[in-house]
Design brief:
heterodimer, A: Rossmann fold, 5 helices, 40% helix, globular, B: 564 residues, alpha+beta, Heat Shock Protein 90, elongated, disordered C terminus
């Protein structure tokens, strides 16, 4: 594998695009996998459904997870990821515009590794996101078995 | 009396709970002093009778028992002692002298009793004067009756204990006084009914002079009156149904038998019937009248009780109604809170998304199509981004405001002076170029939520800091004050101020009294401040003059107790 993957779980296409733009300038990144809802994210991570052909030995360096999703919301997805033997150690960073204390507490309670708030100012958002991505891709030591 | 009991007398915490008394009860002490004085006057008259040999002062009417000289002296001593004590003198020596006088009166009685008991003559009976009417006496010349002697002892005890606060000692005092009262009353009743000294019992109980008996009645009554606040009379004076019943029944219980006795005895003296009939008629009349009064009182008490029960039921109904309203209101509040939660969540998740999109793509436009847009186009994009970001700030402020409303309140003692000082230091650190004089009164404390109170002062002092930026010598003050008699805190500045015609809209969210070009801000600072003050049960008022400065005055604990 040359380079690392980030899995972005985001249902708003505009925000998918903006987040990709923010991460585009990072050359250490192999690619950003974008999925639009929780179920698909789970299928991708576990190699099931439409993703049964995928090599599940390749796990993303970090999952960037929006809380507000269609079908299965961010908390539910996070719980499922943590509940499965194969994905329970995958680093998950919540990426949301919510600053509600309730959401922050619920995120950590469900097993989030980080909580990143989307700034309304795009430059600030880019800075924060790049910093986070660099940390998870370069600084953080992933759990064993993770490529 | 042991030392422990002395302690109990002087230690107010061991006093029994005082019964609420009718308004005129306090005058009883004055009445007691008057009664005791009247008794000692009778004693004085008796002495004068012996000194100047005036028979009517010795025995009132010829043939009646006389007030002996020793008796007159002891009455004077005990009456005067009680008159002094009933006035509650402060000086210790006055009380000691009064107690000594009472004890002397008691000693006269005790020695006389000793004479009766032993048959010895101690030579005290004619110590003062020689009794000229020696033949008319059943005892040794000049000696008082045994009942009289006993009464002096009883009353000396009662007077000595009249100031007792301990219930047990108080009962001893009143018991003695009542015993003396009964003995004197018996003698007076004898005079009223013209009892002749037939038989040994009658001989020894009818030898008390009429004015001696009167003096004893006065002194005993004075003892009871002096103890109105604590003793038996408190029951009579009590402002409750018990006192009501006592005040109604006692006069009848005392007066009716006495009057009936006189009435039926008159018939016997007129020889309409014999002694047995008299007793029978007296008993029947007493039974009938007392029963009637008791039944009437019962009916009245029953009515009072029924009224009380109705009132109780009404109170219970009101309480139930109140409880129901409280739970309704609580449910409404909970619903409102849930709505607010949903609203806040919606701002966080749903409304901020489009704003992010607008700013994000406007930024992309700037970065990628800058040259193609030209100066005018770039200016438009800049305006779009500024508006989106302003929108973002407004949403944040709105969220903050709703968070204040929903936040759990803690109540601690907060040092507002220290808080104001640290905020002032932060403000100065943020803009080191500005010289603002802070005048912070020391030692101002309040009960409240430390986090909310910090936000409150941050906003008020921050405003003062901001609006004094154009003042030549900026001064920001934090001091204590008053609002409608309640303790208040005041934040004052000499900055831009505001027009008093705008004062009504001062605290509405997003309402700004200055243009963004004059002073930056998003217009929820004062709304936040008001929300915090209200959550503490206080209120805030603003005062200002354009160009002269502004003053905000707030209370924090005004209606704290009413908060649910």
């Amino acid at each position: 594998m040359e380079g690392k993957t980030i899995l972005l779980v985001e249902d708003n296409p505009d925000h998918q695009e903006l987040t990709k733009r923010a991460l585009r300038t990072l050359d250490i990144l192999h690619f950003v996998m974008v999925v639009g809802d929780g179920q698909e994210a789970l299928d991708y991570l576990l190699g099931q459904g439409g993703w049964s052909e995928r090599d599940t030995r390749v796990t993303p360096a970090v999952v960037l997870l929006d809380l507000k999703l269609g079908r299965m919301d961010g908390f539910e997805l996070l719980r499922r990821i943590r509940a499965d033997e194969r994905t329970k150690f995958v680093p998950v960073a919540i990426l949301t515009s919510s600053r509600e204390e309730r959401d922050i507490v619920r995120s950590y309670a469900a097993g989030a590794n980080s909580y990143i708030r989307k700034s309304l100012n795009f430059e600030e958002y880019c800075t924060a996101l790049r910093g986070a991505a660099e940390y998870w891709l370069e600084v953080n030591v992933p759990p064993p078995g993770n490529t | 009396m042991g030392s422990g009991e002395d302690d109990a007398v002087t230690n107010p915490t061991s006093n029994p709970e005082p019964i609420p008394l009718v308004p005129w009860a306090p005058r009883a002490a004055a009445l007691a002093a008057w009664f005791a004085s009247a008794a000692s006057l009778l004693g004085l008259l008796g002495i004068a009778g012996w000194i100047f040999d005036i028979d009517s002062l010795k025995g009132v009417l010829p043939g009646l028992a006389t007030m002996k000289a020793n008796t007159a002296l002891a009455i004077l001593l005990e009456g005067a002692a009680l008159a002094v004590l009933a006035a509650s003198p402060r000086a210790m020596w006055t009380r000691t002298a009064a107690r000594a006088a009472a004890a002397a009166g008691g000693a006269v009685g005790a020695l006389t009793l000793l004479e009766f008991a032993t048959g010895a003559n101690l030579g005290i009976d004619e110590l003062l004067v020689r009794d000229v009417a020696r033949n008319a006496l059943p005892y040794y010349a000049g000696r008082m009756a045994p009942t009289t002697a006993l009464n002096f002892v009883l009353l000396a005890v009662a007077i000595g204990l009249v100031e007792a606060r301990r219930p047990r000692i108080g009962r001893a005092c009143e018991g003695s006084a009542i015993a003396a009262l009964v003995i004197a009353f018996m003698s007076l009743a004898g005079y009223l009914y013209g009892v002749s000294p037939e038989g040994p019992v009658a001989v020894h109980t009818t030898q008390m002079a009429v004015h001696t008996s009167t003096a004893f009645v006065l002194i005993s009554a004075a003892v009871l009156l002096a103890r109105t606040q604590h003793g038996l009379l408190a029951l009579v004076h009590a402002d409750d149904v018990g006192g009501f019943a006592a005040r109604r029944l006692l006069p009848v219980a005392i007066g009716v038998p006495l009057a009936a006795g006189a009435f039926f005895l008159a018939g016997r003296n007129a020889a309409w019937y014999g002694a047995e009939f008299t007793v029978a008629a007296l008993v029947v009349a007493t039974v009938v009248v007392l029963s009637a009064v008791i039944l009437m009182s019962s009916a009245l008490l029953g009515k009072l009780d029924a009224e009380r029960r109705l009132a109780d039921a009404a109170t219970r109904r009101l309480n139930a109604e109140l409880e129901r309203r409280v739970s309704e209101r609580t449910a409404e509040l909970a619903a409102a809170n849930r709505e607010l939660e949903a609203f806040a969540s919606s701002i966080s998740h749903d409304l901020s998304g489009p704003v992010q999109t607008v700013d994000g793509f406007a930024a992309a436009l700037q970065q990628e199509c800058g040259p193609a847009l030209g100066d005018a186009g770039l200016d438009h994009v800049r305006r779009i981004r500024a508006a989106a970001q302003h929108m973002g700030l407004l949403m944040e402020a709105l969220l903050e405001l709703s968070r204040l409303t929903r936040a759990e309140m803690k109540r601690e003692t907060v040092d507002l002076s220290a808080l104001a000082g640290s905020i002032a230091a932060e403000l100065a650190g943020r803009e080191p170029g500005r010289a603002v004089e802070f005048r912070i009164a020391p030692g101002l404390f309040a009960r409240g939520d430390p986090r909310l109170l910090r936000i409150l002062l941050e906003n008020l002092l921050g405003n003062a800091w901001k609006f004094t930026s154009r003042a030549p010598h900026p001064v920001v003050e934090f001091a204590s004050g008053e609002d409608d008699g309640r303790r208040a805190f005041v934040v004052r500045d000499n900055g831009a101020g505001f027009d008093m015609s705008q004062v009504d809209r001062l605290f509405s969210p997003f309402h700004r009294l200055h243009t963004p070009a004059e002073f930056p801000g998003h217009g929820v600072g004062l709304a936040t401040v008001q929300r915090i003050v209200q959550r503490h049960g206080g209120r805030i008022r603003g005062k200002g003059e354009r160009g002269k400065g502004a003053e905000f005055r707030f209370t924090l604990e005004g209606e704290e107790k009413k908060e649910l």
